[in-house]
Amino acid sequence: MEIKITTLSENTADLGYVGEWGLSMYIEADGLKVLFDTGAGVAALHNARLMGINLAEVDRIVLSHGHHDHTGGLRDVLKVMGKKVEVIAHPDIWASKYGRRGKNQAHFAGMPFSRELLEDLGAHFNLTRTPVRLTPRFLTTGEIPMLSDYEEIDSGLFDKKTGEMLPDELKDDLALVIDTEYGLVVILGCAHRGIINTLRHAQKLTGKELIYAAIGGTHLLNASEERVKKTAAELQEMGVQYLGVSHCTGFEASAYLAREFGKRFFLNNAGMQLTLPF
Question: What are the backbone angles phi and psi of residue 236, rounded to the nearest 5°?
Fold first, then answer.
């Protein structure tokens, strides 16, 4: 199976493209065109036009979670598409999400649009906690169990339930899995619930062990040195053949992973167009 992955929005952009803090990827696989996240604002639309991608041809939209840097472009994407489209996500995408860094005041970090507005623009929401099969070999993970003993949710993320700031469990965090003859391809939004937990869950869902590629955000930005080292070691132990990181991975973690994976590592930036298998 040939897979094409085009990164439309990411923190860093290839020459000539727009970068923004966020993530959006356009995936062509198994006869489907899927938009995975929509970035924070204008980058996904702008870069899609530059690359000659017609977003009106998208068959499904999948949202990795409800943070604004993954959903902020959704309204304008729907306007451009101009049609009814299924949007697959977890029910918690409209949770009252907040973020705080250090001693700064917590700021709203959730979905910036109402469900009613998005439905008026053509969104048909399929909100579920369980995996969704887009095709027999292309699926979402649904909720990802927290099983590793060192991966944890960022302590600066909150859910303002009934007016009280509580730690956000990020149960809405999900990924995409494509089951190919050359191994699993796992596409990550932020991996808030841990890249190892996500990959292990993908293996369990498919019954396949070999992971050809893991591509996307890994949320190691604020991870301890110990966690980064354990993550790299376990990725190697799992036999991940290619690792392409984006967005919330962080410079130090990216540098460490690049050293560990060598030529099997790459930075997945806005404007990058991948065809798998490599």
Answer: -65, -45
Mean pLDDT of 128-133: 98
| Beta strands 123-127; 60-62: pairing state | unpaired
Query: Which one-letter DSSP state was computed for residue 42?
Result: S
- Which pLDDT value is given to residue 43? 97
In sequence order, the 6+-apart residues with CB closer than 8 A to the CB of 215 are 5, 25, 185, 186, 187, 188, 242, 243, 244, 245, 246, 268, 274
Mean pLDDT, rounded, for 166-182: 97
Q: Strand 32-36 and strand 60-62: pairing?
A: parallel
- Rounded Cα distance, 267 and 164, in Å: 38
Set out the domains of the chain in order of their start, with CATH numbers.
3-276 (3.60.15.10)
- The model's pTM is 0.97
